[in-house]
Amino acid sequence: MTINHKSKFGKSSLSLAVSIALSGTLLSSPVFAAEEETVSENVEKIAVIGSRSAPRSVGESPVPIDIISSDDLKKNGSTDMIDMLVTSVPSFNSRAQPISDAATLVRPVNLRGLPSDSTLLLVNGKRRHRASVIAFQGGGINDGAQGPDISVIPSAALKQVEVLRDGAAAQYGSDAIAGVMNFVLKDSAEGGSISVSQGEYYEGDGATTTIDGNIGLPLTDAGFINLSAQYKTADSTSRSVQRPDAAAIAAGGNEFIQNPAQIWGNPELKDDYTVFINSGFDINDKHSIYAFGNVSSREAVGGFYYRNPHNRGNVYSVDGGETLLVGAVNGDQSTCAVVPANVPNVLDTDAYKAMVADPNCFSMNQIRPGGYTPQFAGTIDDMSFFAGVKGEIAEWDYDLSAGTGSNKATFSLRNSLNPSLGLDTPTDFETGAYEQVETTVNLDFSRLFDVFNGLNFASGFEYREESFEITQGEEASWIAGPYADQGFNIGSHGFKGFGPESAGKNDRDNIALYTDVETYLGEKWLLGAALRYEDFSTFGDTLNYKITAQYSATDDLAFRASHSTGFRAPTVGQENVVNTQTSIVNGDLIQTFIAPPTDPLAAFYGGKVLEPEESINYALGAVYQSGDFFLTVDYYNIEVTGRLAQSSQIEVEAKDYDALRAAGVEFPELISAVTYYTNDFDTTTQGIDIVGSYDTELLAGDTKFSLAYGWTDTSVDKFNEETTDPGKVRRLEDGIPAHRGSLTWGQNWDELSMNLRANYFGEYYATHADDTSDWGSEMADSAVTFDLEVSYTVMDSLTFSIGANNIFDQEAQKLKDGTLGELGAVYYESGPFDYNGGYYYGKVNYRF
């Protein structure tokens, strides 16, 4: 037997090997553009990730791969790429981020129960850069994760998405412990589309408008340029109730209390636009060049926690609300009267009025008499550009490419204070920026040798450099004002600006060498092996391997297995990030300082130099394909040692103040707790993914049933009890549903089509915001939601669609008794589906 698997468009898969970039890319070429478009419409779609051999159908792959076409992605009311993928890929999850600091701006995801930075992202087979945003409050699994920004990729730019659900660090490098996602850009040289969609939640908020388009243009007869663009705006949502403490103060006569005082809901999105370009040109029949990239930007404005005007620590009080924190202009607080704060409304007390009348004395109530709720805003600017040349030299296929990408998050805080500046404080602050920049160079070779029924050999080299830069915020956002030593908080409250001690740029580089071999032994066995060596400038080298096998038991049934080792290097950001966040601990808000693990404060409480995670991955599966019926079942087991995570909040105790000052920590008495990154965990994650489809005829039309089911179980084998509390361990183990699935019924008639999807979410450990205590947690119930879309096509080019996500408005899990409404919230925002409720929409699409 020779390796000569026919694709649906008639060419041997191996005849397309010339078009393979050995980094996993199906190299765009106008010669194959029309043929590739046919693939995206076919049941037996062709994948190029998971193997460096010729592309093959999903059923012939020795590792589990999902392929989602652009059309399938769009059968969803959401225009966010994350939401589109959640309904299509088993064991892929994400949650809303209503009050989560920077995670509000870039939502983290997880594949196979691992954090977002354990999944490698590719665009056209080339490594996609990470986001600059680090998920400080990432819902347990993603706490401290720094993954790529998937939301920046619009469906209008995509031909298909390939998801490799298998450890692949030995093939593709660091970050591929959970798997790989490859976003394949459209490469047509003609035609295009434009669409407009608009929708809102049943509650009447969150109105979203999206306009996107795509056009293919010829680049002479030998090339193409394909352009895509998307523009989006979205209003904020609110699923809030008035906080009891704010309501009590309002009932006491304080007229400055807002209702609700604090918003739990989706952030407002402004001017969210992205432009992608993909291009290719044949130099001759053996060599071609290609280039692709993007420019994107969006602004998001989200909520924060309410600051109570009677008891908020180091702003309004230092004794839990017994008395107001009163500052003295002359520095002697004993000259100012004591103002009791444990009253219905401090503004009406004689003591407060007397204090205000004294020009030497002040409190922050004079600026914010009703307390305040800061608004966290950020602008995300993202760009990338890759270019390369590929072809054939002396029977060897080659691909030489280079590219760069950057993601910058510029932060601001509104409606806040720098209490240490007293009454001279501004209320809006530019707090600084994070920027992630990555540059990658690849040189890859492959060749098919006529031995063992055909042996594909691949080898290559990669150089990568990445940097993480913190830009200083405006002075008022970080400076210790004249009243810091009187107990007033330093910096913009809620999100302290980055000071000169935090600002700076850190970088590292690494080189990698790999070898990949794949061959058939006889007619039934497909074997593969990969070996990858990487050397990092910051922590040394690593060598990893992968072995794959597939056995074709019959023409319809095949068994597959893989075993691999992997690693994930700590990001430059995780090693050097500095931040201040507001956290909930036992229902109370505390100010937490996030420090690099080698910072004097972190080191005092156990911080150490970070080491890479290491993993061992086992997988076993089966593929059955007979006629129009297709089914895959895959079991996986992933052991991760030295797993990187953000520590729990470690209390800064008064007995340590002198030692901390001696170590160089300023004003330790104003820091409630510290957290840092640490190799804290050993975990084992196992699961089963089931993917199936069946095509038939029903109700006088073409019918397709699709199933995607995932069972995921994570156990923490070891953790450091000094830096991690049991609640955080529980979130890692049970924070996402163990069972999740979707069953889709697609029905097509001539001009009319319908797509009905049922989504199942199993029980999960629900927590309120980032609190890991028993105060705000419980096991949440399972739930089922339904999505429906109906489309009608006019003149083969104009399509009208209406639909709804969560069409029966299934309510999210409410907070348990005792915490319901306590901080203004009704639902656990850590739930696996949108707590905003049902969402209806309409779309118009024109193709030309």
From TrEMBL:
Tree of life domain: Bacteria
Domain TonB-dependent receptor-like beta-barrel, first and last residues per copy: 395-807
Principal location class: membrane
UniProt lineage: Bacteria, Pseudomonadati, Pseudomonadota, Gammaproteobacteria, Alteromonadales
Keyword rRNA-binding on entry: no
UniProt record similarity statement: Belongs to the TonB-dependent receptor family.
Residue ranges of domain TonB-dependent receptor plug in the record: 60-180
Keywords assigned by UniProt, alphabetized: Cell outer membrane, Membrane, Receptor, Signal, TonB box, Transmembrane, Transmembrane beta strand, Transport
Bilayer topology: Multi-pass membrane protein
Signal peptide span: 1-33
Name of the molecule in the record: TonB-dependent receptor
Keyword Heme in record: no
Subcellular location as annotated: Cell outer membrane
A Pfam family matched in the record: TonB_dep_Rec_b-barrel
